[in-house]
Design a protein that fits this description.
8 strands, three-stranded mixed sheet, 114 residues, five-stranded antiparallel sheet, single chain, mainly beta
Length: 114
């Protein structure tokens, strides 16, 4: 097994993270719509397989996180709901037919608190 040098995103402005938030108030609900375009925190470990060796090359990939939050106060209680979706999650796979050993997928989550 061989390990290649990681290609870290380090170009000014081009490799920065970008986000937007739109907030408002409607019918007693505070709400926001959010988006963040950023590099994922973890490295993506791409693999190149040959009969002689496996070369692992750490890489960084961008992902888009989108979400919505709604909040309302009902007397002494507060109701809060969150929903989010992350595109382009990169996960290791053990499928020998996969060329780089990475499976790309999205991920959604939601929460409700009161």
């Amino acid at each position: 097994m061989r390990f290649a040098e990681a290609d870290r995103p380090d170009r000014l402005i081009v490799d920065d993270d970008y986000g937007v938030r739109l907030t408002g108030f409607s019918d007693g609900w505070d709400w926001s719509v959010n988006a963040l375009y950023a590099y994922g925190d973890g490295q993506v470990l791409r693999q190149a397989r040959t009969p002689q060796a496996v070369t692992v090359t750490p890489d960084y990939e961008r992902t888009l996180l989108t979400g919505r939050v709604c909040l309302q106060c009902l007397g002494k209680a507060t109701v809060r709901a969150e929903i989010g979706y992350v595109t382009d999650r990169f996960v290791l796979t053990n499928d020998p037919q996969d060329g780089d050993g990475i499976f790309e997928t999205g991920e959604g989550q939601w929460r409700h608190r009161s």
